[in-house]
Amino acid sequence: SDSKSENQSFNTWIKHNQNTNIGTLENNLIGVRGLIGGINNDLLFITYFPKNIEVIDLKTMKPLTGIKNNIILNEEYKFGIQFHLINYFILFCYNTGLLIKYDEQNKSFHYEKLPICHALKNITFYSFVYLYDFIFLFGGRNSITQEKTKHVYKYSMKDKTWNQCKITLPMEIYASFAILSDDDAN
Which segments cross the bilayer (predicted)? Predict the structure, then answer.
């Protein structure tokens, strides 16, 4: 009933006034992912292949400088960031699980190893949602055999454990997208 809200545009692209780029021509941005966060939800965290994390100030649309540990160098994590799950700074990619924490005051990233689901070792292109302290993964494709799956897995944030759900999808899917309804019921 409010005339202001009736005239307001939703789900529209708005060009930023400044010339802003994410990455360079040399970067491999296939499978790039982004997450809005920060104390005031004014930071955009972008991950891209092979092990990069970029932080952009959404007020200025400029990358933050002087970020520490924004490249995951630990030899223990032999992977490339691509088509991964990132939610609340949790990353699952092939045989790697990481909790990624960003300290805004010190402009520094910190990493904690998380357990991985061995059944998902070669599965890529799955979709995911976060609900009630669980991360649900849907479908996917085996990167070796190219077989699609209709399995559903859940990760407990509290217990840090993986389980395959008893329910399955009605058909095999991959390279899909999952989203929750506003009431978290569908």
Answer: none
Give me the torsion for CA of 147, 114, 81, 170, rounded to 10°: 30
In the beta sheet, which residues pair with residue 46?
A: 34, 54
Task: Report the length, in residues, of the chain.
Answer: 186
The residue type of 34 is G
- For 49, residues 6+ apart whose C-beta sits below 8 A from its C-beta are 27, 28, 29, 30, 31, 32, 80, 81, 82
The tens digit of pLDDT for each residue in 155-182 reads 998 999 999 999 999 999 998 888 888 8
Instruction: State how far the alpha carbon of 58 is from the alpha carbons of 18, 44, 164, in Å.
Output: 12, 6, 38
In the chain, the N- to C-terminal Cα span, in Å, equals: 27
pTM value is 0.61
In angstroms, the CA 142 to CA 165 distance is 18
By the 8 A CB rule, do 57 and 43 touch?
Answer: yes
Model pLDDT for residues 32-49, shown as the tens digit of each residue: 778 788 888 888 888 877
Contacts of 86 (CB under 8 A, 6+ apart): 33, 35, 45, 47, 100
Smallest CA-to-CA distance from 38 within 132, 87, 102, 125 is with 102
Dihedral, CA of residue 79, residue 66, residue 36 and residue 83, to nearest 10:
-20
